[in-house]
Design goal:
This protein has 117 residues and is an all-beta fold. Helices cover 0% and strands 55% of the residues.
Length: 117
């Protein structure tokens, strides 16, 4: 059984950092594409960052390039998203998910990031 547990959200002032984590069980990250997506209130889902299958190639949305860094700890089977220089428009619920031939088939429950002065 696959489980993704995302955590690390919270309240931060503009310009501040947060680090999200996604702990996985029932799968090996390297065998799948694992992504962070976010959804702001009243908005559509947006792709944020991820590792493609193989665990080497990364993806970043243009809006987060230079500010967010994705990494993983294979020993802990945990994915991280270091978010720096946060902006109010980064406010959203962030989810980690597995992307496979079946689509976005496993999701974490989400962690809320609020950026506000």
């Amino acid at each position: 059984q696959v489980h993704l547990v995302d955590a690390g959200g919270g309240f931060v002032h503009p310009g501040g950092p947060l680090r999200l984590s996604c702990a996985a069980s029932g799968l090996a990250f390297i065998d799948y594409s694992i992504y962070w997506v976010c959804q702001a209130q009243g908005a559509c889902l947006e792709w944020v960052s991820g590792f493609r299958t193989g665990g080497v190639t990364t993806y970043y949305a243009d809006s987060v390039k230079g500010r967010f860094t994705i990494s993983r700890d294979n020993a802990k089977n945990t994915l991280y998203l270091q978010m720096n220089s946060l902006k109010s428009e980064d406010t959203a619920v962030y989810y980690c998910l597995r992307y496979s031939s079946g689509g976005m088939d496993y999701w974490g429950k989400g962690t809320l990031v609020t950026v506000s002065s």
